[in-house]
Amino acid sequence: MPDAIDQPEFQPRLTTGESFSDAEREAVYRAIYSRRDVRGQFRPDAVADDVLLRILDAAHHAPSVGFMQPWNFLVVRDAEKKRQVAGIFARANVEAASMFPKDRQDAYRALKLEGITSAPVNVCVTCDRTRGGPVVLGATHMPDMDLFSTVCAVQNLWLAARAEGLGVGWVSILKEAEVKAVLGIPDPVRLVAYLCVGKVESFFATPELEQRGWRARTPIADLVFEDHWGSEAAMTRAGTPQE
Length: 243
Ligand SMILES: Cc1cc2c(cc1C)N(C[C@H](O)[C@H](O)[C@H](O)COP(=O)(O)O)c1[nH]c(=O)[nH]c(=O)c1N2
Description:
Blueprint: H1 22-34, H2 49-60, E1 71-76, H3 79-99, H4 102-109, E2 121-128, H5 145-163, E3 166-171, H6 176-183, E4 189-199, H7 208-211
Antiparallel strand pairs: 1-2, 2-4, 3-4
Helix pairs in contact: 1-5, 2-5, 3-4, 3-6
């Protein structure tokens, strides 16, 4: 019997480590920097099935702990289902507004925070916490890794959608149990992301929340430490690309 660890017969399939061309590298960064959360600017036109499948397959190629692939993608086009989810948002949003300090509540209420019914398609991204069996490689001591893996899938979807010219808005002002009931999602599957997807005329150049004065982007130099929490990292002084 061959040693299971050494696997002498194992012949890996490899690709070259060839660099991206300048244009390819720029395209990757362009998708990252120009991706936006889209709430109210959706066009009603349908999203073609082949395009939708491309962005879902990009999501499915995200990394996952122990290669668990814990995600499902529930595509919601039914107007009545979307209306029900929009109702769940509306109720949660009233509660959310009241949680902010009094001087921010009016500013909060003025924000548009979802495009559930205006987007032609919604995608609910879920995490099946049982999919890898009782013990999952890489999640033995950090059990939330399946949820974090699913978020990686969401980000792949978001970036691929931007490259396809599609806007995506993540709506999380929702009671999970209520959305699960509307969509028939069983326990112990978790709702990770409720996404509104559709074509848009334009994207905000910088985050909408920043443009509306809610919160600004933190300078990268405040976020990168070197060797010790709170230290200053010399590399951040050189500056970074701007949106
Ligand atoms: C986990 C999670 C959850 C939410 C969001 C994002 C993420 C990552 N965002 C979008 C968020 O406001 C947005 O990403 C930031 O404001 C930065 O803007 P850009 O994404 O760069 O446009 C978001 N936006 C919104 O209008 N309603 C929402 O419920 C949520 N929920």
